Amino acid sequence: MAEDFxxxxxxxxxxxxxxxxxxFTLPFTDEMRASLAGELDLLALKKPxxxxxxxxxxxxxxLLKARFGATVQQACVITLAPVTTRIDDTVERLFVRALxxxxxxxxxxxxxxxxxxxxxxxxxxxxxxxxxxxxLALALPPYPRAEGAELEEAVFTEEGKEALxxxxxxxxxxxxxxxxxxxxxxx
Length: 187
Known about the structure:
Elements: E1 4-5, E2 10-12, E3 22-25, H1 30-39, E4 44-57, E5 61-75, E6 82-96, E7 119-121, E8 125-127, H2 128-139, H3 171-182
Parallel strand pairs: 1-3, 6-7
Antiparallel strand pairs: 2-8, 3-4, 4-5, 5-6
């Protein structure tokens, strides 16, 4: 019979048996939501959820598969108006006991990254809040825009000087005009 972790945000690895699958649901408190919203630079974080399973992978490793979701409110990159987005996605992490130690490398040494992006070091605990935070941060829209928000042309210059406009920074547009001017119509 699989044990369930329903009311804890930290799973102690010592409580895991290598022949069982575990289910979990991360409980979110108001303080957790406020803290996550601040860390991720969100105006609001509503309906966060993380629910999944933890399955043994070999003798020492654990595979976490979960669905996560949240309704987030971010500031529009143009107008700073609130932009609301619903995110529902999946996350997988492979917690590995034996990861190479890179602490003894020289400062400019090159290291190959593992092929599996899901791999994380397995410590004494599995922090579900950290899994949620990272997955949500990766899923957030990088440049949220309010509906109808458009970037107007901004012109900045010192007093007494001619302003550099977007049109001036497009040299090929000027060349096209010059080419058209130099071409003579064929008779």
